[in-house]
Amino acid sequence: MNRRDLVNAIAAHTGMETRQVDTYLKATTEVITAVVAKGEPVAISGFAKFAKVERPARMGRNPATGEPIKIKASKKARISALKGFKDSVMNPAQAPKLAKGVWPPGPRGAAKAPAKAAAKAPAKAPAKAAAARKR
Q1: Residue 130 belongs to a domain with what CATH number?
Q2: Ordered alpha helix ranges (H), the chain
Q3: What is the mean pLDDT of residues 31-47?
């Protein structure tokens, strides 16, 4: 599932417009990113915890030569799944129920496909006949 699929699924599940859902999703990710960048953890109960972790400098070893090397201090992003999310993933019966047709979505452009196929079919037939005449 990519961002577009997520926005469409949320819109179908909530009845909101896709543009409005996309705006909310962008705002949510921006706020989470900005707060975590400042060093504050963000926890969405039952889902995930986002945090910035500072790792101190340490000594390591080059695996090829065995020579000791100094590994500099670094900052990493840590995203931890919380209990509610883990439980839902491990036991799908506990997962929230979605409205019918929210996920998986129907084939893309299913309603438009017959119209496109009908419009393209006559154009292809003469091309095949012309190719047959050239032989």
Answers
A1: 4.10.520.10
A2: 3-14, 18-37, 83-90, 113-134
A3: 94
Task: Find where tokens 């543009």 sit.
Answer: 19
Q: Is 7 exposed, middle or buried (0-12, 13-18, 19+ CB in 10 A)?
A: buried
**DSSP β-bridge partners for residue 80:** 49
Assess contact for 72 and 57: CB atoms under 8 A.
yes
Q: What band does 102 get if pLDDT is binned at 50, 70 and 90?
A: confident
Q: What distance in Å separates the CA atoms of residue 12 and residue 57, rounded to the nearest whole number?
A: 48
Query: Would you tell me how many other CB atoms lie within 10 Å of the CB of residue 9?
Result: 19
Q: Which domain holds residue 102?
A: 3-134
